[in-house]
Write a structure and sequence with these properties.
The chain is an alpha/beta fold. The chain has two domains: 6-160, Rossmann fold (3-Layer(aba) Sandwich), CATH 3.40.50; 168-285, N-(1-d-carboxylethyl)-l-norvaline Dehydrogenase, domain 2, CATH 1.10.1040.10. It is 49% helix and 13% strand. The protein is built from 13 helices and eight strands. Strands 3-2-1-4-5-6-7-8 form an eight-stranded mixed beta sheet, sandwiched between helices. The relative contact order is 0.08.
């Protein structure tokens, strides 16, 4: 198959890394950025310059979008729908699942092939197998462009629903965020005893590495939906979390990161689920 020409819209840190990687691997690239000065290093390295978004997409087969947010995607792409008709848009902007679905619907209405993507990497990782990029939406767009996508990192197709890549990205980022907040809470507590943050971080790392495999067992309980395995109960856990909160406050450290957990456990106990496995907490996360 003839190698396709690519337009990269947006040359922030991630867009620049992607543009450089594709250029280095032999793709014909056109670059556009709201601030023209950011295009100069790429032009000097062999990329084609585009003065406008319309010009960029008109001269390429694929528009690879690496703009700031969903609003900027709408602002830049909607006016050039006619130029994009019959072409492929690969959107790597961080969006919510419903925003991705909205973009896919707009694209379909204008005869544009749409693939949504989520980049689970920092710019310096682009091109390495450790860079994980999730895609969802038009399956043919994924398979037809897989050689291109694999130049950016490890590519994974998550499904036809355009919002799935974003959903998985957001879910995994949520897990990371809550885990790192745990690091912060532990470091804050131990600093009150003069322990350096680096030392506590090493302790937390070792402890979490030992605990993470138990997450699979929790997932099995959720999938079974019984919450009566005789494991750690809601009542046991809520008193344990209360102790963590008290210990934090005794050291002069806020318990704001811990209190939502306790609240959910207290709600379960109040509805007669004190003897259930504590993982039943997941049922309290659904917004009715």
């Amino acid at each position: 198959m003839t190698q396709r020409s690519i337009s990269i819209l947006g040359l922030g840190a991630m867009g620049s890394a992607i543009a450089a990687r594709l250029r280095e691997t032999g793709y014909t690239t056109s670059v556009w950025n709201r601030t023209p000065a950011k295009t100069e290093p790429h032009i000097n390295a062999g990329a084609n310059a585009a003065a406008t978004v319309a010009e960029a997409v008109r001269t390429s087969d694929i528009a690879l979008v690496v703009l700031l947010d969903h609003a900027s995607v709408q602002e830049r792409l909607h006016p050039v729908a006619a130029e994009l008709r019959g072409k492929t848009v690969i959107n790597l902007v961080t969006t919510t699942p419903n925003q991705a679905r909205e973009s896919a619907t707009w694209a379909a209405e204008h005869g544009i092939t749409y693939l949504d993507g989520a980049v689970m990497a920092v710019p310096q990782m682009i091109g390495d197998p450790g860079a994980r990029l999730l895609y969802s939406g038009d399956e043919h767009a994924y398979t037809d462009n897989l050689p291109l996508l694999e130049q950016l990192g490890t590519a994974e197709y998550t499904g036809k629903d355009p919002g799935l890549a974003s959903l998985k990205d957001m879910a995994l980022l949520s897990a990371m965020d809550l885990m790192l907040l745990g690091y912060v809470q532990a470091i804050a507590m131990m600093r009150t005893a003069g322990v350096p943050a680096a030392d506590t971080a090493e302790e937390v790392h070792a402890w979490l590495a030992a605990m993470l495999p138990h997450g699979r067992a929790l997932a099995a309980i959720v999938d079974a939906g019984t919450y009566d395995t005789g494991g750690q109960s809601v009542d046991f856990d809520r008193f344990g979390i209360a102790s963590l909160i008290t210990a934090s406050r005794e050291q002069g450290i806020s318990a704001l990161l811990l209190e939502p957990h306790q609240q959910l456990l207290e709600e379960l106990a109040a509805t007669g689920h004190g003897d259930s496995d504590w993982i039943r907490i997941i049922e309290r996360l659904t917004i009715h």
